[in-house]
Structure formats: structure tokens, C-alpha cells
Amino acid sequence: MLESVKRVILVLSGKGGVGKSTVSTQLALTLKEKGFKVGLLDVDLCGPSVPYILNLETENIHQGAEGWIPVYLDKDQKLGVMSIGFLLKNRNDAVVWRGPKKTAMIKQFLEDVCWQDLDFLVIDTPPGTSDEHITVMENLRQVPQCSAILVTTPQEVAIEDVRKEITFCRKTGIPILGIIENMSGFQCPTCNECTNIFSSGGGKALADFAKVPFLGSLPLDPRVGKLAGQGVAAVKELPDSNTSKVFNHLVSVLTESTQNGS
């Protein structure tokens, strides 16, 4: 079913809790706002948060003649979403599966979802470099334009884990589009002053060390946090925020690299 997808973007990190799902959803929403047709696949089987972030928890997926039909955020079907969260009865249900069952589920998501024609498929992944990631990589080998965005936070412990993710991407042959530093200081919603809660500059230093592009720093912004559960793009609701500037830049990078075939 990936034959109709023009480009796949993997959102990765070796560390949990760095905001991959927030980056994935806001990237998908920004691409949608720019007029692209987008799919968002949540393969974090044990912690599927995409349905909640996009306010789609009450929706269900359906089986069609050609495969599973994704849940659409809008009537124009510009953003389709697939997650195991749609198969659970409630948010508190735990997915207690061994590796082979996880592998089979992810393979089914990649092969049996009827995305139709997509400009971009954004894949939100769990932390680490284990079964889920290997399954995704094996099934994406035939996709001509597939690249990864790595998400980190400024602390050294997160950077060390993301460094392992860089090694994983290079071993599996997935091009790295760049690194985003999330939670890069607290931005006051009143005065816009940004205060470093953790250390600063770790993401940029890691990008320089790995010789990959640095895509920007996303601050902790309470206004952006309130958008979780609403399914609304920061670029639409908060066009002047630093978060919106980073995602606008990211979409520009994606568009340019797509046109260049890289």
C-alpha cells in the first residue's frame, strides 16, 4: 500500500519522553495546512498517544475492499491517521505483546492500510532500536524517498541515546534529514522570554558532531501544550510562536529536499 506514498518521514529518538509524538503530529498538521495530503502512522504500540493528541480517541477504523481505512481528521481527507489506539476499548488498556506479535501488527499497518495517494507519510515510532524499528526499516527498503528526523532534548542523557539512533540509521541505510531539539527552555507566554530549564545547545552540538543538519529548537510553550487534544496546528493557532517558525522551516526543508529527490 506504500506505492502511492511519495515520501516517508520517520520520527525517531533513542530516548522516551522527548516529544516524538508532539513533533510527529505537529509536522503532519503543518504539512496539511500547507496543502499537502498527509498520512500519520503511529507504530508506538505500547504508548499510542496520537489519537489523544489529535482528538480522535472516539473514532474507529474500518475494513474496506482494499484494506484498512484510516481515520481522517478533516472532511477533505487531507490528513489520515492510523494507530493501534483505535483498536483499544479505552485509553487505559495495555498492549501486552511479545516481539513477534508486535512485528506482525506493524507489518500489517505498513502493508494493509489504504492510504490512497499521499504526499507525505509521517511515522511516529517508539523509543529505542528494537523489533518495531527493524520491522519498519525492512518494509521501507523499497520506498525511494524515506528519511528520518531525530528528536532529542538538551540533556546529556538524552543526547547519548540519540547518538545510538544515529548509528542505527546509518547501519540500516536510512538518510537523516536532521535533528530537532525539543524542550529547549521554557518560553513565558506573557513576556516571551525563554529560560533554560535543562542545559542548552545539546541538539546543535550533536548535529555538528554527527555532521547532519540542525533543524531547530522547540521551547516548552504552554500555549502549544494546550493544543494537545485539539488536533490543531501551531502554525495556524500560534503563527508567530517559535514553535511555528521551526515547523514552517522544517516543511520548507522537506519540500526542497523532495524536489531535489533526496
UniProtKB/TrEMBL annotation:
GO terms for cellular component: axoneme; centriole; cytosol; nucleus. Binds 4 [4Fe-4S] clusters per heterotetramer. Contains two stable clusters in the N-termini of NUBP1 and two labile, bridging clusters between subunits of the NUBP1-NUBP2 heterotetramer. The keyword 4Fe-4S applies. [4Fe-4S] cluster binds at C188, C191. It is found in: Cytoplasm, Cytoskeleton, Cilium axoneme; Cytoplasm, Cytoskeleton, Microtubule organizing center, Centrosome, Centriole. Its cofactor is [4Fe-4S] cluster. CDD domains: Mrp_NBP35 (cd02037). The keyword Nucleotide-binding applies. GO terms for biological process: iron-sulfur cluster assembly. Keywords: 4Fe-4S, ATP-binding, Cytoplasm, Iron, Iron-sulfur, Metal-binding, Nucleotide-binding. ATP binds at G14, K15, G16, G17, V18, G19, K20, S21. Its main location: cytoplasm. GO terms for molecular function: 4 iron, 4 sulfur cluster binding; ATP binding; ATP-dependent FeS chaperone activity; metal ion binding. It holds the Pfam family ParA. Belongs to the Mrp/NBP35 ATP-binding proteins family. NUBP2/CFD1 subfamily. Heterotetramer of 2 NUBP1 and 2 NUBP2 chains. Interacts with KIFC1. Interacts with NUBP1. Component of the cytosolic iron-sulfur (Fe/S) protein assembly (CIA) machinery. Required for maturation of extramitochondrial Fe-S proteins. The NUBP1-NUBP2 heterotetramer forms a Fe-S scaffold complex, mediating the de novo assembly of an Fe-S cluster and its transfer to target apoproteins. Negatively regulates cilium formation and structure. This is Cytosolic Fe-S cluster assembly factor NUBP2 homolog.
